[in-house]
Amino acid sequence: MSLTIYGCYRSRATRNVWLANELGITFKHVPVIQVYRVADPHAPDAPIHTRSAEFMAVNPNGHVPSIDDDGFVLHESLAINLYLARKHGGPVAPKDVQEEGLAAMWSLWAATECETQALNLTYHLAAYPPEKRDPAIVATALAALPAPFAVLDKALAEGGGFVMGGRFTVADINVAEVIRYAKPATQLFDAAPNVKAWLDACHARPGFKAMWAAREAEPA
Are 117 and 139 in contact (CB under 8 A)? Predict the structure, then answer.
C-alpha cells in the first residue's frame, strides 16, 4: 500500500501532510507547484506544475492537492483528509456516523463561511507587496468574519476546546487550516479567545510543526 501526495507545501497540500503526520502514514511527496508561480510553464526545465501534462493526467482540474492511494485518486484537500481519517481510523478519525456528519459539516462550514475572506486577509495584510494590497478587501473580510468566528468560539467553549467529540480530530485540522489564513488580523482572535487558544494548541502539535518546518524550507 502506498500513498502519494501531489502538491507543494505552500498550498492546501499542507492539510493532507499534517493529517498524514498525525496518523503516522508514510507517503511519497510530489511537489507540484501552482502554474502562476512558474516564470515560464513551457520551458523545458520548468518544474512540474498544475498545468503540466504529467499532473493534468492525475487531476484534470489542474489544482493541488491530489492523492493517489494505491491507485485510488482523490482531489480536494478537505475531502482527502476525511477519506484518510476514515480509512486509517484512530482517535483522529470520526468514531461513528454522527461524527462523520459533524466532520463533514465543519469542513464545509470552514470552506464556505470563512476561507475566501480569510485568504483575502492573508493576501492583503501579509502576502502581497504593499502596492498590491487593497484596504477595501480587508475591510470586507473584517466585516464578514466576526460572525463565523463567534460561532466557532462558542462551539469550542462547549466542546472542551475541540471542534467535535471532545478530542483532537480531523475536523480540527480541516477547520484550523482555513482559520490559519486569518492570522494577520489579530483583532479577530482577540474577540474570539477560544478560537485563539485552540489554534495555538493545534499549531503546537508535533504533526503540525513537522509539516510547517517542511513548508518553511520550501522556496517561496
Answer: no
